[in-house]
Amino acid sequence: MERMKSITILIADDEAEISDLIELHLEKEGYRCIKVSNGLEAVSVVQTHSVDLAILDIMMPKMNGYDATRQIRAQHHLPIIFLSAKATDLDKITGLVNGADDYMTKPFNPMELVARVNAQLRRSTQLNQPATANKSVLEAGGLIIYPEQRTVSLYGETIEITPKEFDILYLLASHPKKVFSAENIFQQVWGDAYYEGSNTVMVHIRTLRKKLGEDIHKNKLIKTVWGVGYTFNG
């Protein structure tokens, strides 16, 4: 299907052969690509161009992918996919915790990467539809969720959470006491088929709980229903 040329994808990798391969396959889909070779350039491009999605290597010169993601996330909500040779489960979890929406390991299948790019862009488009602004502000136990601004505050202090963490929290808080399975959360938040999504959801729930200070306040806003899934307990 022909894509609009206005969709711009940032590719940040210090291996030119990999960047060229990704660009080749994405341009076949009709996307416009901007290629850089380090994290500093990646941050600069996002600040000066209209970028719809970023594909970042982790081990890059001048600034690594983790630090680049943190700087990008401070002002922008575009989807970010890590593409890295770091392939252990801990590496993947670290990538997701540091703000990535998806994580692929090298060597990779270019067509799978394209499919994941398409899925992330579909999800991003849905979230930015005008209807999003009509969602209600949610309040529970000192927690306030602002869907239009996509921000969260707890006891008057803003909580820094990633886009996916926000989506999970809003989904659960919008349906208090309803139990969502990991599969259902993955399908609704990631907008894609459920593939190895259980650990991904678990990691995001774990980091979300930590940011909400559940160990300190003992409020347990997100409750685990063992063998079933998760529910909002506000």
Automatic annotation (TrEMBL):
PTM-bearing positions, type 4-aspartylphosphate: D57
Gene3D superfamilies named in the record: 3.40.50.2300, 6.10.250.690, Winged helix-like DNA-binding domain superfamily/Winged helix DNA-binding domain
UniProt cross-references to SUPFAM superfamilies, sorted A to Z: CheY-like
Presence of keyword Zinc-finger: no
GO BP annotation list: regulation of DNA-templated transcription
DNA-binding region: 135-234
Pfam family, one: Trans_reg_C
Protein name: DNA-binding response regulator
InterPro entries in alphabetical order: CheY-like_superfamily, OmpR/PhoB-type_DNA-bd, Sig_transdc_resp-reg_receiver, WalR-like, WH-like_DNA-bd_sf
Domain (OmpR/PhoB-type) ranges: 135-234
Keywords in alphabetical order: DNA-binding, Phosphoprotein, Transcription, Transcription regulation, Two-component regulatory system
Source species, domain of life: Bacteria
